[in-house]
Amino acid sequence: DRKRRMDPLRPGISIANVRETAGTLGCFVKDRGTGEVMMLSNWHVFNGPSGRIGDAVSQPGPYDDNSDVEANHVGQLVRSYLGLGGDCALASVTGRPFKTRILGLDVSPARIGEAHLGDRIAKSGRTTGVTYGLVRRIHVTTKVDYGGNIGEQRVGGFEYGPDPDRPSTDGEVSSGGDSGSLLMFCDRQGKVTNIAGGLHFAGEGTGSTDEHGVACNIESVLRKLDVSFEGLGTADT
After folding, report:
1. How far apart are CA 132 and CA 173, in angstroms?
2. Of 7, 32, 79, 225, which sees the most CB atoms within 10 A?
3. Comparing C-alpha atoms, which of 53, 55, 59 is closest to residue 23?
4. How far apart are CA 14 and CA 9, in angstroms?
5. What does the alpha-carbon distance between residue 195 and residue 113 come to, in Å, rounded to a whole number?
6. Is the preceding omega at residue 8 within 30 degrees of 0, hence cis?
7. Which residues pair with 17 in a beta bridge?
8. ω before 60 within 30° of 0 (cis)?
C-alpha cells in the first residue's frame, strides 16, 4: 500500500522527484517565512544529482509507478540542502489533501529532540514499514557517494541499530526506499511520542552484516530549510 498512489497523502509513503526513483515522504512542515505547508524528505529523494528547483515531485515515486507520472504529480521542489548539516529538501503540496499523522505510527510530529545513546526510536518507511531501533552512536559523520556530478559528500547525524526488544520480521531496521523517513522518539514504556529526532538518509553498505541506519539531526534539518512543526497541530488535516 505504501508504494501506490495515496489520497490523502500520509507521511511514510513512496514519493520522489520525477528524475529519481522512490524514497519516503517524511512529514509535513511549515515555512517560517510564508506559513506555507510543505513536504519534507531527503535531498536525494526530492532533488538528486540531476534535479533543479521547480522540478515536479511524484507520489508514488517513478520507480513504483511510471505509467502516468503527470497524473501522480503532487508538488514541486522548493529548496534543498546537502552537507554536514543534513541531506534534506522541501516540496510544495499541490492538488491533493494530506494528513499529518505518520502512517503506522499514528502521531504527528510536534516537537524536536536531541538523540542520546540508548534512546528508542521508531520510523515508518516506504520499504520496511514501521521498525524500531536504538540510538548507538551520536555526532557521527557519514560519507555517502551520491553519484553524478555530486560524488562523495559528508553528512552529519547519528546512527541507530535494531531494537532487540522489538525486532522487525526480516531483521531490517531500514532498507533502500526508506530514505526520508522521520525518526520519532519512544517513551520508557515504548510508546511512540510526537517528538522527532532525525531524518533517515542511509544504511549499511552492500555486503555488510552490521544492520543499522543513519539519520540527520532534525534540529539541523529544520534550521537549514527554515521550517518548523509549529502551527500544524496534532490532528489529521
Report:
1. 7
2. 225
3. 59
4. 10
5. 6
6. yes
7. 57
8. yes
DSSP string across 115-166: --TT-EEEEEETTTEEEEEEEEEEEEEEEEE--TTT-EEEEEEEEEEE-TTS
* Per-residue pLDDT, 66: 86
Residues in the chain with pLDDT < 70? 205-207, 233-237
Q: For 135-152, what is each residue's pLDDT tens digit?
A: 999 999 999 999 989 999
Which pLDDT score is estimated for 95?
Answer: 87
Q: Which amino acid is at 44?
A: H
- Running DSSP on this structure, what letter comes out for residue 18? T
- For residue 20, which of 208, 49, 101, 36 has the smallest C-alpha distance? 49
Q: Are 156 and 220 in contact (CB under 8 A)?
A: yes
Written as nine digits, the cell of 155 is 553528512
Distance CA 146, CA 71 (A): 28
pLDDT in tens, 62-81: 999 988 888 899 999 999 99
Chain position carrying cell 552512536: 137
Separation CA 154–CA 118 (nearest Å): 24
